[in-house]
Design brief:
- Two copies of one chain form a homodimer.
- Chain A is built from ten helices and 16 strands.
- Chain A is of the alpha/beta class.
- Chain A has two domains: 4-124 and 302-332, Quinone Oxidoreductase, Chain A, domain 1; 127-279, Rossmann fold (3-Layer(aba) Sandwich), CATH 3.40.50.
- In chain A, strands 3, 4, 5, 6, 7, 15 and 16 form a seven-stranded mixed beta sheet that branches. Chain A has a six-stranded parallel beta sheet with strand order 10-9-8-11-12-14, sandwiched between helices. In chain A, strands 1-2 form a two-stranded antiparallel sheet.
- Strand 13 (257-261) of chain A pairs antiparallel with strand 13 (257-261) of chain B, so a sheet runs across the interface.
Chain lengths: 333, 333
């Protein structure tokens, strides 16, 4: 009798935002590793908004393959080596999430070497935030930094990183009072602005009376519009995400239009730069080193919302899109 | 009997776009220079879209003073010294346009020293284009450059400068087939896209089949939206003007909203930077040197539309806004 495991397939292309019915939890034989492949028993994998783009059919410019009905979902995962060319029992990071057993090529696995004290922290989405804040906008001592999507997987890391890099005042945008409270209490945000709770411009003016030096944007849309209006002379804006497009029922996840006042951008000498990780190949290792040090020193937290067990996975992306997680959303097996 | 001269005053704050009736041509005594002032007989002055902003009441962030009803208009001008501490007969550049005689302080006058072969060329708006192309986006050999408002005072210089700096393909956006023709015939543009002549995205895809490396934007609005869509990976966009706001009847000239796809900006690692001349104090002298060399070598043209005589000045700004000029609009006395 062959051992079986469970995995998650895309059942159909969602009509608008995905629902649990768009995904199927499938029972299948545990795969047998081919030559060069490793059999890995997954322990954790990431639920990330980019999946909305990959299943939505708007994947131009996206560095990951699109997902079609019948395809198994994928994404960053951590697991233990069971068989194959790597040492049994070692923890590896790979990209075959959404299944209990995976068979990545050994060359696609990264052996975890203890750089981070907690293996799950390898699923933290801090690298892009760190890269954007050190390469594109270069946060300086005394800066006021606004993180548009502060309670997301990137945003929860970004605010803390900005502070550790010298920001004096860190402001976060989010969609719920509960998240706003957690941002201030647990992650050291000085103030928050709340989407849907009155004019963002007025809220930002209160949260940052002297204006904003740096914006780390993971959302786009009206939060970015307001951020440009509150930006100081010479402000630097880094774009690292586009949740406004990925979480919107009206879009397929491959666009995120924001209305930006170009007159303001030029009179204030403001710069907006999109962060593409491929342009900064040295960031990842540098970030992990810093992250490890900061975690061990207790200077940074890695907040995530666990999704417990494979049974919950068909609803995991819809829950993420509905805003029910704080920090990263991680399936624990 | 006191000698008189003519000057142009703002009669009232325009309701929407200015009309000739919003300006008054006034007869007044020729001013007497006070201590430290120079009496200058103006020969040329510039009509520029920024006046729309100055008379519109939306002057936050603008480095020039607002204009109220009763105020005399002003702007870059060239004239001959008649009296005062500077040598009589010398040509000077100053900022008191829109009048036959001006009395700038000697310290506000620049003696023209022959850097440019034609004194009127000092009214060319090339400095911001040169600064943006050399400091913000650094045009390289082989670049495809798109100038959104190619037939304007800045745009007519920008396309030529981009070419001289190494651009291989230069594309211009404009609003009339006549201007498009002149851009290609007289200023060396390789192709043009025409506002109001079908989808800009499609036109741009034809004009730049391999995509755009550099955008020099003087317009904003839908031209910039389309430019972002046609931009290549790593494209650099410089904002040096916001005509879309200044020439629009719905706005007062102090804003120019454009819809930009932030998802595209980040997946393609695109940068947008607003050019503020005050951040680049060394640009002006460097530009004039280059401009002088290029003019003498016949490598660059300074196209402008003359407005002949003070009688025509009340209509000069409305004519500019209506798109009736090519290149700079310059009153000749």
């Amino acid at each position: 009798m062959t051992a079986t495991h469970r995995l998650v397939r895309l059942a159909r292309r969602p009509d608008g935002l995905p629902t649990p019915d768009d995904f199927t939890l499938v029972q299948a034989p545990v795969p047998r590793p081919e030559a060069g492949q490793v059999l890995v028993r997954n322990t954790h994998f990431l639920v990330f908004p980019g999946l909305r783009t990959l299943i939505g059919g708007e994947t131009r410019d996206v560095p990951l393959p699109p997902l079609h009905p019948g395809d198994t979902l994928f994404g960053p995962a951590i697991g233990e080596v069971v068989d194959g060319p790597l040492e049994k029992g070692r923890l590896v990071l790979h990209i075959q999430g959404w299944r209990e057993y995976a068979t990545p090529a050994a060359t696609e696995c990264r052996l975890l070497d203890g750089t981070l004290p907690d293996p799950v922290a390898h699923l933290a989405q801090g690298s892009a935030a760190y890269g954007a804040l050190t390469r594109l906008v270069e946060v300086r001592q005394g800066d006021t930094v606004f993180v548009t999507g502060a309670a997301g997987a990137v945003g929860t890391m970004a605010g803390q990183i900005a502070r550790l890099l010298g920001a004096t005042r860190v402001i976060g945008g989010t969609g719920s009072p509960q998240k706003a409270q957690r941002l201030e209490r647990e992650l050291g945000y000085d103030a928050t602005v709340l989407r849907g709770a009155g004019r963002l411009g007025r809220q930002l003016a209160q949260a940052a009376p002297d204006g904003i030096d740096v914006v780390l944007d993971t959302v786009g849309g009206e939060l970015l519009t307001a951020a440009v209006h509150a930006a100081k002379r010479g402000a630097r804006i880094a774009l690292v995400g586009a949740l406004d497009g990925q979480l919107s029922p009206d879009r397929a996840g491959g666009s995120a239009p924001a209305v930006l006042d170009t007159y303001r951008l030029l009179t204030r000498g403001i710069t907006i730069a999109g962060y593409n990780g491929m342009d900064h190949p040295d960031v990842e290792a540098e970030w992990e080193n810093c992250f490890g040090h900061w975690l061990r020193a207790g200077d940074i937290h890695f907040p995530y919302t666990p999704v417990l067990g494979m049974e919950r996975t068909p609803g995991a992306l819809p829950e993420l899109i509905a805003g029910r997680s704080f920090g990263a959303s991680i399936v624990e097996l």
